[in-house]
Write a structure and sequence with these properties.
Belongs to the ferrochelatase family. The chain has 356 residues and is α/β, with parallel strands linked by helices. The chain is built from 12 helices and 9 strands. Strand 3, helix 5 and strand 4 form a beta-alpha-beta unit. The structure holds coproporphyrin III and fe (ii) ion.
C-alpha cells in the first residue's frame, strides 16, 4: 500500500452545531418566518395565509425551538456521560433565530475552527439534505469566516438501525394501545415534496427518488421490527399549487380511503420528523385527528423520536464517530463547508414563477 492510499485521520473537531429548520417564537414572527421559508419557492399566497392560521392556532409559537433545545439538553447530558464535556453544542437554524449565520459567527468568535454539524433531518433530497448544505455555505459567507474554519455536515441517518429501532419503540407502544379487538392499521407519514423534487433526489446516477425510497425503506424496516406486515406510507403538509404533483396520497385522503374500506383503528407514525413540531401537532394531531373522529376512526399518533434515550444515544454515536477526525466522509449527506456529497445530487428543481 502506498502512502497516498492511507488517508490520515483528520484533526479532531472542537464544537457541534445543531442545525434545524427554525420556527416562530411569537405571533409577530410568523409572517417573516414564513417569508424566509418560502422565498422564491412558488408557494401560493392562499396557502401561506392558511399556514399563518396554523401557527396562530398555537399562539404564534412553534414548538420546534423548545423541542430542539430539549434535544440539545439531552445530547449534552449524553456527551458529558461519555467524557465529551469539552465539545460544546451550539444551536442554529435555516429560517429563524438563532439563524445559522449568527451562530457560526459566535462559534468562530469563541475560538472554534473545526465544527461538526448535526442537521435535524434524517433524509436525503433537496429540503432534507442539500438545503442544509446550502445553509452551511450561506452561514460561512454571511459570517465571513476564514478558510481555516471547517464545518462538516454529518451524514443522513435514516438507514441507522438505532434510528429505526427508536421509531419502532414508539410504534410498538402505539400498537399496544389496542390490546384487544381488530388490530389497527399502521400508517407512516413524512413531509410531502414535489414529484419533480423527488425525481431529482439523490445522485443522478442512481435514478432519483432517494427521498421517497428512504422513507419507504425506513417504514418497512420499522414495520418489520414491530412484526407488522401490512402498513402504508403516506405524505403530509403539501404546500404547492394544486396543479403541481406532490408525493401522494395525503394522510387525510388516506384516512378517508381506509374508512371506506372499513378500517376503524389507525396508528400514525410521523417517521419523517424527529420532533413533535408544528407539522406534527397541526397536520396530524389537529387536522388528522379531527378527520378521524368524523370518520369514526380510533386514532393514535405515536411520538417522534425526540429526546428518547435511544435516539439521543444514536446522535451521540454519530457525533463520536466523527469527533476525533475519523468517520466516513463519503457517507451520503456528509460534506465540508456546504459541499454536496455526490455530483448532481438532489439538484434543486426550478420552481414555477409565481403568477402576478
Ligand atoms: C422534506 C421536508 C421536511 C423534512 C426534513 C426536515 O426536517 O428538514 C420539512 C420539515 C419542516 N417543514 C416545516 C415547516 C414548513 N415547511 C414548508 C414548506 C415546505 N417544506 C418542504 C419539505 C420539507 N419540510 C417543502 C418541499 C416545502 C415547500 C417550500 C419549499 O420548497 O421549500 C413551509 C411553508 C408553508 C407551507 O407549509 O406551505 C413551512 C412553514 C418545519 C417546521 C415546523 C415548525 O415550525 O414547527 C419542518 C421541521
Ligand atoms: Fe416543510
Amino acid at each position: 500500500m502506498t502512502a497516498s492510499e492511507v488517508r490520515p485521520a483528520d484533526e479532531p473537531f472542537d464544537a457541534l452545531l445543531f442545525l434545524s429548520f427554525g420556527g416562530p417564537d411569537k405571533p409577530e414572527d410568523v409572517r417573516p418566518f414564513l417569508e424566509n421559508v418560502t422565498r422564491g419557492r412558488g408557494v401560493p399566497p392562499e396557502r401561506l395565509d392558511d399556514v399563518v392560521q396554523h401557527y396562530l392556532h398555537f399562539g404564534g409559537v412553534s414548538p420546534i425551538n423548545r423541542l430542539n433545545l430539549d434535544m440539545i439538553g439531552a445530547l449534552r447530558g449524553e456527551l458529558d456521560g461519555r467524557g465529551r464535556s469539552a465539545l460544546p453544542i451550539y444551536f442554529g437554524n435555516r429560517n429563524w433565530h438563532p439563524l445559522a449565520a449568527d451562530t457560526v459567527s459566535s462559534m468562530v468568535e469563541d475560538g472554534h475552527r473545526r465544527i461538526l454539524v448535526f442537521p435535524t433531518s434524517a433524509w436525503g433530497g433537496y429540503s432534507g439534505c442539500r438545503q442544509y448544505h446550502e445553509d452551511i455555505a450561506g452561514a460561512i459567507a454571511d459570517a465571513g469566516v476564514g478558510r481555516d474554519v471547517v464545518l462538516r455536515k454529518l451524514p443522513q441517518f435514516c438507514d441507522e438501525p438505532e434510528f429505526r429501532g427508536a421509531v419502532a419503540d414508539a410504534v410498538r407502544e402505539g400498537l399496544n394501545r389496542f390490546p384487544d379487538g381488530p388490530p389497527p392499521r399502521l400508517v407512516f407519514t413524512a413531509h410531502s415534496i414535489p414529484e419533480s423534487a423527488d425525481r431529482a433526489a439523490g445522485p443522478a446516477a442512481d435514478g432519483g427518488r432517494l427521498y421517497s425510497r428512504q422513507v419507504s425503506d425506513a417504514s418497512a424496516a420499522v414495520a418489520g421490527l414491530v412484526g407488522v406486515t401490512e402498513f402504508d406510507v403516506v405524505w403530509q403538509s403539501r404546500s404547492g399549487p394544486p396543479q403541481i404533483p406532490w408525493l401522494a396520497p395525503d394522510i387525510c385522503d388516506h384516512l378517508r380511503a381506509l374508512s371506506s374500506h372499513g378500517v376503524s383503528r389507525v396508528v400514525v407514525c410521523p417517521v419523517g420528523f424527529v420532533s413533535d413540531h408544528l407539522e406534527v401537532v397541526w397536520d396530524l394531531d389537529t387536522e388528522g385527528a379531527e378527520l378521524a373522529a368524523e370518520l369514526g376512526i380510533e386514532y393514535v399518533r405515536v411520538p417522534t423520536v425526540g429526546t428518547s434515550a435511544r435516539f439521543v444515544s444514536l446522535v451521540a454515536d454519530i457525533v463520536e464517530r466523527y469527533a476525533d477526525g475519523g468517520g466516513d466522509i463519503t457517507a451520503m449527506g456528509c460534506g465540508d463547508d456546504g459541499r454536496i456529497c455526490r455530483p448532481d445530487c438532489c439538484v434543486p428543481v426550478k420552481r414555477p414563477a409565481r403568477s402576478g
